[in-house]
């Protein structure tokens, strides 16, 4: 892992391991090393990690897959996670390679077609790329109508903000929001979490 220079001291929190962004676990560190093995720049490493999490880790709701995961190592071990958990894994893989990564969130209307008025948080990752700064990426997983990509400096996220009440939540967080972690740890099955997705009213 490359050290952070003194002038980048503000990025230090975005390089730390934790019980959720647990890249100190050997399987996470090994996966990060494998993804970076044939890359030549931080941006290339970031893209490789993004594509792996987007495409190889199944979104729990899309695939009706259990268990509900939270820690990066559990997401990798089980190969599934909600958007928040996939973001945890992506951030952990990036940090394992010395690339600053944080968590950010959108507030989205859960089912616009059903007009239920129910909102939920959606989890993203912000990666700090040399020469560019913070750049948001969305590894929730593509499907018909969802086409998130790694195209810096242009963001290409899964969901545009369209409905009244939808918003980008401010801030890039070094640790997951408490309500997100609580929801992931409160439920064991994808359908139970779907009925109790976290939200942060504006």
Write up this protein.
- By secondary structure, the protein is an alpha+beta fold.
- The protein has six helices and eight strands.
- The strands form three sheets. A four-stranded antiparallel sheet has the order 5-4-3-8. A two-stranded parallel ribbon has the order 1-2. It has a two-stranded antiparallel ribbon with strand order 6-7.
- Strand 4 (about 120-130) and strand 5 form a beta hairpin.
- Helix 1 (about 25-35) crosses helix 4, helix 2 runs antiparallel to helix 4 and helix 3 (about 70-80) crosses helix 4 (about 85-95).
- Residues about 1-5 have low confidence and may be disordered.
Provide a brief overview of the structure.
30% of the residues lie in helices and 18% in strands. The protein has 202 residues and is of the alpha+beta class.
Keywords:
four-stranded antiparallel sheet; alpha+beta; 202 residues; single chain; globular; two-stranded parallel sheet; disordered N terminus
- Give the CA-CA distance, first to last residue: 38 Å
Level of helix content?
Answer: 25-40%
Strand order of the largest sheet: 5-4-3-8
User: Over the alpha carbons, how many angstroms does the gyration radius reach?
Assistant: 16 Å
Helix/strand/pairing category: alpha+beta
Low-confidence stretches: 1-7
Task: State which percent range the strand residues make up.
Answer: 15-25%
